[in-house]
Amino acid sequence: MTMGSSRRVVILVSGRGSNMEALLAARLPIEVVAVISNRAAAAALPLAAAQGIVTRVVPSADFTDRIDYDEALRQVIDEYAPDLVVLAGFMRLLTPGFVNHYRQRLLNIRPSLLPAFTGLHTHRRALEEGVCVHGCTVHFVTDELDGGPIVAQGVVPVSSADDEESLGQRVLAVEHQLYPKVLQAWAEDRLHWVSPERVILRAEQENFPRVLWGK
């Protein structure tokens, strides 16, 4: 899927692919050269195929060793020579060798305001902790769990009426706004590494800040 640019992107998915859909709907100046899943039943795959995008499956169920799986996945990804690998609901813990192979080229969106609430059940834990705000984070991936340089965050106020589902849905809506904006900035060379641990997003016409406030 080409959108007027040679910036090549591979998207990794495991499930329904709502963040993938948001990226594709944004008509970004990138070329999505493949969508790859660890699950053949991932709903994202037919959605991508319907837009003429190559889809591949590297079944994680066929592997008992994480290192072996990540090596098989890396080989498939590298067939497409991507400039960036985008995690869009890819539900795997990645090994250090895989992460380091794509160092500064592996982007993720996380449903929490990092460094808060790493791991699972972020919305439930945010409510249990009684926080006033919750949200999502776009970051480059390192071998630290949910670590790596933060690019931008989306913030959602927490209401006393919220439950895990309602809060999760509002955070997801902000994810669908934030992720395309960050990919747009990347495609326009507005992400600048000032050190191996820090990346700066430079705003231009739309004056997009590092923090996006949602409802």
Strand order of the largest sheet: 3-2-1-4-5-6-7-10
The proportion of strand residues reads: 15-25%
Tell the overall outline. Answer: globular
Mean pLDDT: 93
- Please tally the β strands and state the result: 10
Q: Low-confidence segments, ≥5 residues, pLDDT <50?
A: none
Q: Specify the helix fraction band.
A: 25-40%
CATH superfamily of the largest domain: Formyl transferase, N-terminal domain
**Into how many domains do the coordinates divide?**
2
| Spatial separation of the terminal alpha carbons | 32 Å
Structural class, please? alpha/beta
Quick overview of this protein structure:
This protein is α/β, with parallel strands linked by helices and 215 residues long. The protein is 30% helix and 25% strand. It has 6 helices and 10 strands; from the N terminus they run E-H-E-H-E-H-E-H-E-H-E-E-H-E-E-E.
Describe it.
By secondary structure, the chain is an alpha/beta fold. The protein has two domains: 102 residues, Formyl transferase, N-terminal domain (Rossmann fold, 3-Layer(aba) Sandwich), CATH 3.40.50; 107 residues, Rossmann fold (3-Layer(aba) Sandwich). Helix content is 30%, strand content 25%. The chain has an eight-stranded mixed sheet with strand order 3-2-1-4-5-6-7-10. Strands 8-9 form a two-stranded antiparallel ribbon. The longest helix is centred in the C-terminal third of the chain and has 24 residues. The chain is globular. The model has no long low-confidence stretch (mean pLDDT 93).
